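Run Type I restriction enzyme, S subunit through structure prediction, thanks.
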Amino acid sequence: MVVQRMELPEGWTLCDIAGVTDSVEKLDPRSEPDRLIAYIDISSIDNQSNNISEGKPFLISEAPSRARQIVKQGDVLFSLVRPYLRNIALVTPEFDGEVASTGFSVLRPSKAIDHKFLYYKVTSKEFVDLVSGEQYGVSYPAVKDKQVRAHPVALPPINEQRRIVDKIESLFAQLDHGEAALRNVQKLLVRYRQSVLKAAVTGQLTADWRADKTDHLEHGHVLLERILQTRRENLQGRGKYKEPVAPDTSNLPALPEGWVWASVDQLHTHLTSGSRAWKKYYGSGDGVFIMAQNVRPMRFDLSEKFLVDPPQDSPDAVRSEVRKDDVLITIVGANTGDVCRFPSDVGRHYVCQSVALLRLADAALSPFIETFLASKGAGRDQLEKFIYGAGRPHLSFEQLRTVVVPMPPLGEQTEIMQRVSGKLDEIKQIDIACQAELTRSAALRQSILKEAFAGKLVPQDPNDEPADELLARIKAARAAETQKTRKKATA
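Sure, done. The structure for Type I restriction enzyme, S subunit is below.
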């Protein structure tokens, strides 16, 4: 590696990581086949906190073939696979003597470098970016252990290293405190958001408005009758009309004045999901196949777009094409029960098999129905009660049809959604501000590390032993130990 010369503070020296780390003992699986170990692989690392979250228990005889590196407290584990993901951790006392994957560069600090100084060095963005720039391979990008060890490190005297670590940890502790407060605010925002939604769909949010408008509102019963009539008219010509099933209201709570209970069955004209036979149409055209990951709670997310180009006149395309204000519900997989409203009528969009398309008899109902179905303590609880299948959760159309919905007068629905929109916008702005502060804090951490490794975080002490002298002593001691070992071997 070509090392760019840099001006070093007094007492510092430039070396590579290999020069300040010791060799790591390799595990012989034949030595103690029945010993129980905690195996540390890449998935054991929490790359947000840069800690080892857990080790996987194995008998040595049954451990994966990559379980070969015996680690010690103070070792630094640096993932060789996709290093940009920052799967880096310090080995803590509970993992002393356990076994790590060969997918790590295990950096064992010598007496020349403080273990936390080394840890902070390799977790810095500057170091991770340099290493990541050397990775090879496309589907499985990685670097080699020797590449990590070849990287230079500006090495201060050992006492200064400890002062630097103390200063870093003091400053990081302050940042930790602020970040914890910000994350607590974000958690409170999630709870507040749910309370807003629940207040909206139970009538609490508009109680004052309703008190002033009671005599001027169309009753929910009238609205429901009009919806049922629209439903009948819409479904004429599709065979014998089947009356929708009304909900059993005997055990339901009382509703605000002017509201009425209805079933999804009564409110919709179309409920379907995507075709299972469109594989030949995938990946071309300008149609968008709406997948489960596009349906987020009350948010249609097209950050991942999957193209599809079915014949536009095919029955499946006509049946599964989405219109503005259709309600989309994930009915298969990990996000089953997530609901959002389709926001646009631009372009061709089709639901996949994992997403239900719910078209209401009156599109004006769509914002309130979306809010109700997304609200915990209301529609979301009904959906979660219906979900079946432990390994792969599902919701059926029949279950969706039986969901019971409170129906306010249409004018009140409009007022509800205006108030909800205003409060959710406030929540979003506060969350954006919190996230901006967290981003600023993360950048500040990197600035602290940059200052630390440039010798600008703490003052130098002329009484400290220079780093090059310490390295020379360690090198001489190693050479003497090697010579002694050779003499014993030949004796």
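The mean pLDDT is 94.
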